[in-house]
Specification:
single chain, 36% helix
Length: 320
Amino acid sequence: MSGEAPPQQPGFLQRTLHRVEDAWFASAEKTRCWSFDVKDEGGGEESVRRMNAVRLATGALLPSPGLGVYRSAAGGECLAAVASALRLGYRHIDTAQLYGNEGDVGRAVAESGLRREEVFITTKIWTSNWGYDACRASLRQSLAELGTPYADLVLLHAPGDPATRADTWRALEDAAKEGQARAIGVSNFGIAHLQKLAQTATIKPAVNQIELHPWLQRRELVDFCRQQGMAYSPLAKAQKLSDLTIAGIAQRMGVTPAQVLIRWSMQKGFVPLPKSNHPERQQTNLDVFRFELCSDDVAALDRLEEGLVTGWDPIAMHDV
């Protein structure tokens, strides 16, 4: 392992990457975990933040944690949230056609002063745009909204209609070949959906973005996905922040319950996408590199499994 060069990545990541450890990604197979420094232009030492990145199967590096913008209202709220996150050091923004705020994400990135290659942008194709032609057209529209010729990661938002799923995935494969998507993947897919997709896919999904937190660990699915898993709801939509186990660990370590959950997710090798429109909470959610959960704490959190789905669950709902 020593002497091996980090994977190629454009822009500032390539200049600042340092390998820090082997990490477990999606709990099954080892993959490289990298770290990099983010510094505001003209800032002092106090403005430097350490971030992690997980290597995808494509070789691309996915910064962690990222900012999710689900239910960040377009027309001001989302724009302000992304702008503040980028100032604080976030370099991964996760949006979707369904969220209706791709335009705000694109504008915030354009106005941030950062180069396009310095920000990892994920978007998702909604099920109303299933089918080859509809998917290609909707992705072109998403890129126009985002103000960029490519997205770093494009996902199918849910398993959708089994009759058109293969053609929709083929549309993403062609988009990837033509450079409109640097990586492609899926979201909310179960094992059966992934197995069915594999029968026709020529490019394997780089990511399966699923709800994961201590109360919903989906161990069988995570194990199946191996290097293709990504958590999108490490905070369980704030439903469990008062849990006594979480609160006890947080109090002992002098951190917030949300930080404990984000740290658990990262130590599992997942890429958490906490959502917040408030700069203070964004900063707190990013300040998770100064502490580490011990093995006993991780085990205590692992024991919280109860099958809690905090909302929509296409993994259980959709036909194969």
